[in-house]
Each structure stands twice: as structure tokens, then as C-alpha cells.
Design goal:
BirA Bifunctional Protein, domain 2; three-stranded antiparallel beta sheet; Helix Hairpins; alpha+beta
């Protein structure tokens, strides 16, 4: 969330950001009004405490001088001060809690370079990569490829877990593991520490990394324990240092997180979202950076470059887009997406999201580092490296051959026993 000093000292910055997003100023005004009320209630309570302390000294002086009548008069005058101080304190706490509840729903301040636009159609293409594959036959959507080759069993998964779950089989399952291992090796070689996080989080930690009022509908709650199954390893890894003051010598902290991810994916979706493209459980390798504020924009470009080199290495055709104001979301100050070409679907679709969240998550998590001037919020960044199910779809659709086999990207062949193609499963 945004620091209170912005609302107190520079509310025009927040209002200007809301104007770029096309948002009203109501919640900004509400935070400022509640903060003013909180300060006023605290001031009134402090005045009464001062009066109570002064009265205590006057009572003591009256008793010492033998003026019992004066002591009793002062005592009766301040008899209700304690209850009034408690009432003002309770109201101040309520105002502060409501202020911060509203403040947590106000989005991050976007970087000035974020393009203006109402929705994803206004995202700006930054670069194009790889060669668009050409076919001498009509390319199939991955839904058909997985069915014809018996690589995925959706029907039996639906029996045991429900729709949008799946069994992954044979060579496609091996390819999924190859993607994980190759990506981990790639990131570790670039100085990232491999971390496998817990796959459940409590509400306090989750509210530190995202706006649950927006995100909770796509998450799986685990009752009666009050946990949430993670939607991405970004969340537990970013929250790893919550309520801590980080020693500056540790910065930047670079993590490669690998975990299963769980999303409800509610709502209606098109044909190209079926199969294993939009599912309730998938595996993702994520990049996380926790750093000094002055370094975060360099790290943002570094994360993007890692993605580009990784996906270039897979030999796939994709584009990088700069996300516009209307497609930005709450947490990021700037975001890039990689969109892979799916020839069967005839569309570019998101496979990577790369975000600089500046100090927004750190403020919510109370995550700081030491400086000569005092403790200061760190900056947090995250980027998909590979969401394996979506990468598999891109590999299948771009690498398909007329007989239904799929060419394995060369960098993954050592993890596949040197095979050149993934073959049909025998059941």
C-alpha cells in the first residue's frame, strides 16, 4: 500500500495517478478524512491525559497543604476523564483501522512510462522475437493434440477433482519436468537462489502481497484453518521477510521459486482457454527480487532480459508488450508481458508477467532495510520465468508436425534422454 506521507504531503500525486487510471478520487478523500479524524481524536485524548496529569499534581499539592475540600473538588472534576480517554482511544483505533483498510485498496503509483489505455487492446508492443512458424498443413489447437496423443486425461481428472484439473502423461509429463529443471538451472546460473515455498499462506501474509478484495475470488480457501492455497510462489516468497528489518548486505535478494499454483479461474472462457491452458493447478518457476529502491528499475529490466533469453533459448516465437494503465492491476508500478504465438488458436497469449511493485508490497508487509537515515522500505519485483502448462501449449502448437508428433526444443533434449520428439502415449 502507499505510505501515509503521500496522502498527507503529496495527495496530488495519488490523484494524478487515479486520473491516468480513470479512477474516481473517493477513496483518496476517504483516507485523508479518516486520517484527519484519527489525528484529531489522538490530539483530544492527549489533551485530556495532560489535564489528568496536571490535576493529579494539583490534588497532591492540595492534600499536602491540608486543603481537603480543594482536592475533592479537583477529583470530582476529573472523575470521568479516564473513561473519556478510553472512548477517544477506541474511536481513534477504529478510524485508523478503517483508514488503513481503505488505503490497502488504493493502487500503486504507476511509473510515468506506463502507456495510457482503457484495456489490454491498448498495450504497446515492445519487441518481437523468434520466427513465426509456417506449416504445410492446418495447425491444430493444443486441445486436439493432447487428445490425439493421449498426453492429458481431463475426463478422469474431472472424476477425482473436477473440471480444469488434469493428469499429465508420458512424454508430455517428462517435457514438463524438463522445463522445470532447465529453467531452474538457467536462473541459478544467473545468481538466483532456488527456494521451494510453502503452498499455503495465512490471511495476514496474503494481504501483504495482494489486494484480497480483488484476488480472493480466484483463490482456494482452506477451512477451518483459515489458510489459502497459493496462486503463485511470488506470494509466499515476497512475504518471506515480512515484519523484518533486512540487513543491507543481503540486498539484493534473488530467488527462483518453484511450486504448484492453485487458481479457481472463475468465469466463462473461450475454446483456446480449454485443455491445459487455463487450469486450476499448474507448476510455475518464478523470479523474485527484493532490493534497494534505487536499484529496482535496473532489476526490472534484468528480469525481463532473463525471460527473453530463456524463451529465445526455447526457440519459440513471442512478443513483449508494455502493459497500459487500464490493464495494470493494483500492485505493480510497471509491467511487461511475454505473449507466445499459438498458431492453432491464431493468437498471441500471455505466458509471462514481469512486474516492479516498488515499495507497495513492502509497506503492507512492514519489510524494511537499514540505512544511515533510518529504516526504509525495500522494493519488490516478480516475474514468471515459466508457467509450465502454458509453455507446453506454446511448444506443442509451434512445434507440431503433420503426424501429431511435437518437436522438442533443443535445450530440453538433454533432460529428455536425447529425444527429438515427444511421442504418443500408449494409453
Amino acid at each position: 500500500m502507499l505510505e501515509m506521507r503521500l496522502f498527507r504531503d503529496s495527495p496530488e500525486v495519488i490523484r494524478a495517478d487515479h486520473d491516468r487510471r480513470g479512477l474516481p478520487h473517493d477513496m483518496i478523500d476517504q483516507v485523508i478524512a479518516l486520517d484527519t479524524r484519527w489525528k484529531d481524536l489522538r490530539y483530544q485524548a492527549d489533551k485530556l491525559r495532560k489535564k489528568r496529569n496536571e490535576s493529579a499534581r494539583s490534588i497532591a499539592a492540595a492534600k499536602k497543604s491540608g486543603n481537603k475540600e480543594e482536592a475533592e473538588r479537583i477529583l470530582s472534576e476529573v472523575a470521568d476523564i479516564g473513561a473519556e480517554i478510553e472512548r477517544l482511544g477506541n474511536e481513534a483505533d477504529e478510524a485508523e483501522n478503517e483508514r488503513d483498510r481503505v488505503r490497502m485498496r488504493i493502487p500503486n503509483i504507476m511509473h510515468e512510462s506506463v502507456p495510457i489505455g482503457d484495456n489490454d487492446t491498448k498495450n504497446i508492443e515492445r519487441s518481437m522475437h523468434g520466427v513465426m512458424p509456417k506449416f504445410t498443413f492446418e495447425p491444430k489447437v493444443h486441445n486436439d493434440l493432447i487428445e490425439e496423443n493421449a498426453w492429458v486425461d481431463l475426463g478422469r481428472a474431472a472424476k477425482v477433482a473436477g473440471s480444469r484439473f488434469y493428469y499429465l502423461k508420458g512424454d508430455l509429463a517428462r517435457l514438463e519436468m524438463a522445463l522445470q529443471q532447465h529453467t531452474i538451472d538457467f536462473l541459478v546460473n544467473r545468481g538466483f537462489t532456488l527456494v521451494q515455498p510453502p503452498v499455503m499462506m495465512n490471511r495476514e501474509a496474503y494481504e501483504g502481497v495482494t489486494d484480497l478484495s480483488d484476488f480472493e475470488t480466484v483463490m482456494y480457501g482452506i477451512q477451518p484453518d483459515g489458510f489459502y492455497a497459493i496462486a503463485t510462489s511470488e506470494h509466499p516468497l515476497t512475504a518471506m521477510f515480512m515484519d523484518e528489518i533486512i540487513e543491507p548486505a543481503l540486498l539484493p535478494i534473488k530467488m527462483a521459486g518453484v511450486s504448484p499454483c492453485f487458481r479457481r479461474e472463475v468465469g466463462a472462457h473461450g475454446l483456446s482457454d480449454k485443455g491445459i491452458w487455463r487450469v486450476h493447478q499448474f507448476t510455475k518457476v518464478e523470479q523474485i527480487v527484493i532490493c534497494r529502491p534505487e536499484d529496482s528499475w535496473d532489476h526490472h529490466e534484468e528480469l525481463l532480459q532473463n525471460c527473453i533469453e530463456l524463451w529465445d533459448g526455447l526457440g519459440l516465437h513471442y512478443r513483449v508488450v508494455d502493459i497500459c494503465t487500464g490493464d495494470m492491476g493494483t500492485v505493480a508500478a510497471k509491467k511487461y508481458d511475454l505473449e507466445a504465438w499459438l498458431p492453432g488458436a491464431g493468437a498471441y497469449k500471455e505466458v509471462v508477467s514481469c512486474s516492479n511493485c516498488t515499495d507497495y508490497q513492502a509497506n503492507r508487509l512492514k519489510m524494511r532495510y537499514r540505512t544511515a537515515e533510518g529504516n526504509t522500505s525495500v522494493h519488490t519485483l516478480n516475474s514468471t520465468a515459466v508457467a509450465t502448462s502454458r509453455a507446453l501449449v506454446a511448444i506443442m502448437e509451434q512445434g507440431q508436425e503433420e503426424d501429431g508428433r511435437v518437436i522438442i526444443p533443443e535445450v530440453l533434449r538433454p533432460y529428455m534422454g536425447g529425444k527429438n520428439h515427444i511421442e504418443k502415449s500408449n494409453w
